[in-house]
Amino acid sequence: MTDSSVAETRSRARTRPTSGEPDIVCADLVRIFTTEAVEVQALQGLDLVVDRGELVAVVGASGSGKSTLLSILSGLDAPTAGVARVAGRDLLTLSRRERVRFRRECVGFVWQQTSRNLLPYLTAAENVAAVLAITGTIKGSARTERAMALLELLEVGHCADRRPAEMSGGEQQRAAIAVGIANEPRVLLADEPTGELDDETSAHVLEAMRSVNRELGVTTLIVTHDPAVSEHVARTVQIRDGRTATEVLRRTRTDEHGAEHHVAEEYAVLDKVGRLQLPDEFVDALDLRQRVRLALEADHVGVWPGATGPARETGDGDGAAEEES
Question: What CATH number should be reported for the domain whose range is 3-246?
């Protein structure tokens, strides 16, 4: 294994185009599951855009629709209606054969259960090489070199000759990430990748995913119920009731003294017909129920519980007059 192998892997990624259509586009996405007596809307007009090279976490409680979203984006399931495009492919129009090719060439996947990521009878290096053998893009010794380069990038090169049972949970998941990116996918999808790990190991795995995103430019979407994951990404999207509800954007700001500060700003997602979902903590704090009072101000919209709110006198110049009934 040489340093040039790792450098070549990084160089190939950096030469990919970084502009153009986002790698993930969902608009008015609907998925309905129907049985004999029950119809369940898992996704109810979900909107989501992930630009090329972004690292995004999608957070939601059980039943929010996040697993359904991931199944659609990976090509394992088909939406009922709406728009779903991944890596330039229209997922609503793909044939069965095209879906197989899409999963083989365009997306990588990391499952929560490590047993689904790695074949137990192969070593870590053999698991990565197996993906390359299936795609047929790299042959011979180059296949072994690439497998080793990816394991080194994920800091599990020492596990190259170990089978999954001989690795820790964190080592297994980092090897699984190497498997997921072996075919150089445009998009890496991760389903609860830290769900079976302790907090410290989870942090190491998430940092490994950040490293892959930064070094290789792989667009990465992490789906999880764990809000702690959001601390490791710049953008977190929350799903509630089958729709995107809020987004948290994180950035680093430098003040006039040169000190760095981490800033997190939360935004509600406004859909095409003007609907938005208020965060649960806002609703609970103000005991908002059934209907709320709205007022249009010069630069914002005011929301108050029930039919009450701050009194406004006509002509006070500070907002709309309050109507008395």
Answer: 3.40.50.300
